[in-house]
Amino acid sequence: MSLPEPLPGLVLRYSYLWADDAARGIEEGDKDRPAVVVLSIPGPAPQGPRVLVLPITHSPPTRGVEALMIPAAVARAAGLDAAESWVVLSEFNEFVWPGFDLRMVPHSKPATVAYGFLTPGFFRTVRDRFLTLDATTKSRPVSRDE
């Protein structure tokens, strides 16, 4: 299996570590979930790029959590299931690609860690809202480099 390039908008299967869990000293994500690459910053050779991913969840956002509901057509295009989903914008995991926490998409043939891509228009909305939150320090980073 070859790894895809970590292009912005790519939806991966990833062992996401929530910021609240990391603050409590937990070091591993509690389950594998889709996450979208929001930024990919080139790194010095031979190191891979530094990648920032946002979690995708079926749980509606709670108070204080910034999230965007993924339209059904966008979810289908990205290879996600039909259940309502949200991209959480107020926290992110960052790591040097490919990191240790990529996971295989169940039942994918051929085997892959990628579901697909968010549509360009929806991704621009996600990216722009995330960058606005990040610039005002309202997003919480979790470094996953081990």
Question: What report would you give on this structure?
Answer:
It is a single chain. With 146 residues, the protein is α+β, with helices and mostly antiparallel strands. The chain has a single domain (10-143), classed as SH3 type barrels (Roll), CATH 2.30.30. The chain contains three helices and eight strands, in the order E-H-E-E-E-H-E-E-E-H-E. Strands 1, 2, 3, 4, 5, 6, 7 and 8 form an eight-stranded mixed sheet that branches. The longest helix is centred in the C-terminal third of the chain and has 16 residues, at 120-135. It is globular, with a radius of gyration of 14 Å.
How many domains? The number is 1
Give me the strand/helix succession.
Answer: EHEEEHEEEHE
Low-confidence regions: none
Mean pLDDT: 95
Strand content: 25-35%
In CATH's first tier, which class applies?
Mainly Beta
What structural class is derived from the secondary structure elements? Answer: alpha+beta
Return the CATH topology.
Answer: SH3 type barrels
Helix content: 10-25%
Annotation field: number of helices:
3
How many beta-strand segments? 8
CATH architecture, by name, is: Roll
Quote the distance from N terminus to C terminus.
23 Å
Summarize the main sheet. Answer: 8 strands, mixed
Q: Please compute the radius of gyration using only Cα atoms.
A: 14 Å
Shape: globular
